[in-house]
Amino acid sequence: xxxxxxxxxxxxxxxxxxxxxxxxxxxxxxxxxxxxxxxxxxxxxxxxxxxxxxxxxxxxxxxxxxxxxxxxxxxxxxxxxxxxxxxxxxxxxxxxxxxxxxxxxxxxxxxxxxxxxxxxxxxxxxxxxxxxxxxxxxxxxxxxxxxxxxxxxxxxxxxxxxxxxxxxxxxxxxxxxxxxxxxxxxxxxxxxxxxxxxxxxxxxxxxxxxxxxxxxxxxxxxxxxxxxxxxxxxxxxxxxxxxxxxxxxxxxxxxxxxxxxxxxxxxxxxxxxxxxxxxxxxxxxxxxxxxxxxxxxxxxxxxxxxxxxxxxxxxxxxxxxxxxxxxxxxxxxxxxxxxxxxxxxxxxxxxxxxxxxxxxxxxxxxxxxxxxxxxxxxxxxxxxxxxxxxxxxxxxxxxxxxxxxxxxxxxxxxxxxxxxxxxxxxxxxxxxxxxxxxxxxxxxxxxxxxxxxxxxxxxxxxxxxxxxxxxxxxxxxxxxxxxxxxxxxxxxxxxxxxxxxxxxxxxxxxxxxxxxxxxxxxxxxxxxxxxxxxxxxxxxxxxxxxxxxxxxxxxxxxxxxxxxxxxxxxxxxxxxxxxxxxxxxxxxxxxxxxxxxxxxxxxxxxxxxxxxxxxxxxxxxxxxxxxxxxxxxxxxxxxxxxxxxxxxxxxxxxxxxxxxxxxxxxxxxxxxxxxxxxxxxxxxxxxxxxxxxxxxxxxxxxxxxxxxxxxxxxxxxxxxxxxxxxxxxxxx
Amino acid sequence: xxxxxxxxxxxxxxxxxxxxxxxxxxxxxxxxxxxxxxxxxxxxxxxxxxxxxxxxxxxxxxxxxxxxxxxxxxxxxxxxxxxxxxxxxxxxxxxxxxxxxxxxxxxxxxxxxxxxxxxxxxxxxxxxxxxxxxxxxxxxxxxxxxxxxxxxxxxxxxxxxxxxxxxxxxxxxxxxxxxxxxxxx
Lengths: 732, 185
Description:
The structure holds 2 protein chains of 2 kinds.
Chain A: E1 2-4, H1 14-45, H2 53-89, H3 95-133, H4 135-168, H5 175-187, E2 193-199, E3 202-207, H6 212-223, H7 227-231, E4 234-238, E5 242-248, E6 254-260, H8 263-284, H9 286-334, E7 341-343, H10 349-398, E8 401-407, E9 412-415, H11 417-423, H12 435-438, H13 441-455, E10 460-468, E11 471-483, E12 489-498, H14 499-540, H15 548-575, E13 583-585, H16 587-601, E14 606-611, E15 617-619, H17 621-638, E16 645-653, E17 658-665, H18 672-675, H19 693-703, E18 707-712, E19 718-725
Parallel strand pairs in A: 1-7, 14-16
Antiparallel strand pairs in A: 2-3, 2-6, 4-5, 5-6, 8-9, 8-12, 10-11, 11-12, 13-15, 16-17, 17-19, 18-19
Chain B: H1 2-23, E1 28-37, E2 40-48, H2 53-60, E3 65-75, E4 84-98, E5 103-108, E6 111-115, H3 118-126, E7 127-133, E8 144-152, H4 159-165, E9 178-182
């Protein structure tokens, strides 16, 4: 699976990615618009005369748009900040580092920006205050007062001239005459002085070079005077280009003495007046100016803060998105998902990291696949090995050959049950021990001699007799040297074959021959002996009537002949035991019926029967019933016929393809000295026994391709075992 | 929830701003009268509530205040869309305090008057008697009327003032069209 670049929490779909792109575009456009519109507004206000009210509407619209855009920017940034906080609260992977980075970015941008804002606002406020309320105001007011003072002084100087002219002016004088008077008076005064005689209608006469506008202004201002001012006899009027003194005549006319200022002086006075006006205006706008500067500073601060915040969020995302992806990917890999692929492309270090991660997971997946294949192969090999080992162990456990493996350090590497039994040792804890510590002292020398020969590299095969308790066991021992593929000595395999069984069979065969000949030799004269004795008894019975010796003798002869016949019959049966007729049948049922018959015959004995999962087997039912019946009769005889327990079991050995029938009793057991001869014909410790029962068992087992043996049933009793293949030789 | 906060806040700001504006008295044209005769119309009217304390203070501080007045004379018909415009003209009137000569200079279309105090200056700026040439002759017995509208002309303001006063509602002086009947003797 592929992990796309996640959002503040989870995974990003294509639509979400497009949404993010739109969002970023919107923020960018908003930022550009805010800056652009702000510049435009600044320029619009500077356009001066071309701006009319219609333009103001546009400006307001622009300002409002500006505010809306700033609000939008704030909203978007705030939304992102809230998202980061929410992601952190929801414990979304990567949210913590992202929020920390955003906090750091905001902190780093906020602290200097606010510091700068406070400093700038302070400097601005202080500068405006010092400019408006400080020395500037005093200087401008002083300059204005000085200018006006100079004009007033000039006007004061002209008062005398106006008085003189007024005094010299007769009543109802014509304009021309008045002009001459004014000219005469003006000559006695400094140049630049103009004298004017005016009535309500306007200028009557004048002398001097004052501009017409000056006289008009003076007359206009005289008209606009209040009643109290108008009632004054003389007054002074000043303007930015002139100073004048006005003297009223009794007939209502006025004499005006005017002095126009040099152009340079009037220009300076105008400038002072203009500066003063502007100062007054600015003083009036003290608060709005300060507020506007602060507002601009706030705007800039907000822009910086939000731009920095947004940049912080963006940068944090740039860092945390791949980290978050890597964390999620690692978590998935840790959970065993090696199909995880991170969908992140960048040419920076994170891009390399993600690419390495993807390569690593790919390699891991490949390695895992190889490992799984190797494991599968190993498991298969191991299983095969285990099966083979089990097979070998089963063979070694079940074969009649005892096997001991001795490693290169003369330690016991393996020993099977048969070897244990043959050598009379307990395999528990012998593995790994030197074989000289394991083998019985009385056996050591004989076996040591064989292993020496084996170590010398010779294949050894020899028959030896080893004492085992009270009896002697005849064994054929073969020693095989083991070498590895490099020819290095690895140890020895010592195999023991118990020859007792073979010898017993040979004895049985010999006994059969003997029995056949004896039966043949005995049976022939028995019938004539019997017939002769009966004839004698018949012919001479009457003669020797009353002679008990005669009757006793004939009866004895007949009885012994009968016994001999029975014996011969047994011999014949033993000698001419028929070859088994194999049939496939249910062995369990056969055994059960034999056990049931014995249970009925010996109800005092506890008969137990156990046979599970025995497959159908090939056997001669008549012979097997006879053999088992003999074993059960022996067991019952060992128990005295009325007490004790006999356990009959049948076990299937699938590996070997054999069945084993065991009959265990808890009677007195078989003395060790008798065991070797137990299956021999005519060996019996029983009163009246023929000694053929177990010989027949052994013969039947042998005819079925199997064996019969006996061992102790601990703590007391004996176990007779008979085993044979479930299929006769030549089949399967 | 968050998506409602921003619009709500903007709406609240607008309502507050409009409420503030409502609390001030609006400038208006009143007492429109006059007569039409021959090819001339004489119109007089008064501008009320044009000068608020802020403007008076500004005027005293030497700021020039200028009004532009549009006057239109119509012959009134029964159906208003048949009304005939007989004269139309825009007048400018401004006043400024001269700190040197200590008079208020009232400029009435190029003609300057020198007024000694603020009241005279305000009076000069708010009382109008205008003469307009008519495009067509006046007919006796017909109905005539004058339409007048005035606004503060910011163009005359100095640069910093113009920028700052843009945002002040006190300087938002503009009347709607006011109507008054003219006598046609």
